[in-house]
Amino acid sequence: MDFRSFIPLIAAVVMALITFWVVRRSNFSIQRSAANRLDSFAEQDRRGVTDRVGDLLVDRLGLSLASWKQELRWAQIGGHYLTGDGRPRTVGSVLGQSVLFGGLGIAYILLFHAFSPIYLILVGLAVYYPYLTLHGRADTIRDVVKRGLPEATALVAAEMSAGNSITLAVERASSLPGPVGQILREAVDRARSEGALLFSQAGATGMIIKHFSELRFTPLETFAARMDAVSERGTEGPKRMNELARDLAMEYQVTVARAAETLDNKLLVPMTIFFFVPFLAAIFIPLMVNIFNTF
Amino acid sequence: MGLAFVTIVFLNRNPSMAASVRIPLVQVAYAVIFLMIVYGYNMINDMIENAV
Predict the structure, then answer these.
(1) What is the rounded CA–CA span in Å between residue A130 and residue A96?
(2) Helix, strand, coil share (%) of chain B residues, nearest 5
(3) Using one digit for the tens of pLDDT, what is the confidence trace for A142-162?
(4) 8 Å CB contact between A31 and A66
(5) Which residues are bridge partners to B14 per DSSP?
(6) Do the Cβ atoms of A95 and A51 come closer than 8 Å?
(7) pLDDT-above-90 percentage for chain A
(8) Is B16 on the interface with A (CB under 8 A)?
(9) Is A205 strand, coil or helix?
(10) What is the pLDDT of residues A69-80, one digit of tens each?
């Protein structure tokens, strides 16, 4: 049988498929040009390639990635992993980066036949790097929140001492710049949109406890529980809030003092790696080259 | 970083070492060394800032 007789048939099938694909993707509806542009703007997918790949994998494989989502949530509180128009990125964007880096690494190994363990380790590191960055950023934001809690508490205590209710005091504290203000803002906004109370009352859990416990960060949960307890104190509230502010300030001072004591030991390893070893390398590399050149 | 720079200048002016220092591989190594020092300086700075 002559294969060439099938060529027109195969070409016709391919052309039919291409035509079908083009027709399906085209929008032939007659509209005013401005409305058409507005429609396409609204429907436009503004995600990057890595975001799309990651989201596709999460959807298709049914991945949960709960810990990744939690870390992403913390990083986003600090203003990371947001799109150009300020919308939060999905966990797929981080996964997409891992897949992209891993894919590039594997492509390099296959193209250049670099089947050595060191390259495989490097590919593993490249795959892990996006999550490592995410975790690092989330950790930094958690530290900033921990450091910012005494200041926020002092502000709430000052507002309450001035005769304002604890709810109003928290609403005012939510205008604080930084991650603590952001978390308080989110809690206040959620309470408003869901019609819930900020603090527990008549058996209903307050939004502060609910929102803060979702973030799963012990100092924040303790802070929420203590503020919630203060809200039930009535006229004693301002006094209790001042005590809470003082306690947190003292805890912070103790933490800083402890950190300062151990700082020397903590700095020893990075100083050796980043200053001492490079300095020795700067001397020994040309010396070693000289020695090798003599043979 | 200053000390590393002075060492490199010293090696570069030394007649017996100058040829080795000017090899491209050594120059690349020096570039990596400087990048490492700058990165380390930033990292240590962040560690101190975060500690207090």
Answers:
(1) 9
(2) 85, 0, 15
(3) 999 998 999 999 999 999 999
(4) no
(5) none
(6) no
(7) 48
(8) yes
(9) coil
(10) 899 999 999 999
Give percent of chain A with pLDDT exceeding 70: 92
Q: Which two tokens stand for residue A236?
A: 């004693």
Cβ–Cβ below 8 Å for B29 and A143: no
Residues of B within 8 A of A287 (CB-CB) are: 17, 20
Minimum distance, in Å, between the CA of residue A274 and any CA atom of chain B: 5
SS3 label, residue A88:
strand
Query: Which among A221, A69, A232, A207 has a CA at the least distance from the CA of A149?
Result: A221
Is some CB atom of chain B closer than 8 A to the CB atom of A124?
no
Least confident stretch, A50-64, A116-130, A140-154, A259-273: A50-64
Give the mean pLDDT of A164-182: 93
* Out of A274, A278, A286, closest to residue B20 by CB: A286
Measured between CB atoms, which of A263, A275, A283 is closest to B37?
A: A275
Backbone angles phi, psi at A199, to 5 degrees: -120, 150
Do the Cβ atoms of A278 and B44 come within 8 Å? no
Question: Is residue A12 less than 8 Å (CB to CB) from chain B?
Answer: no
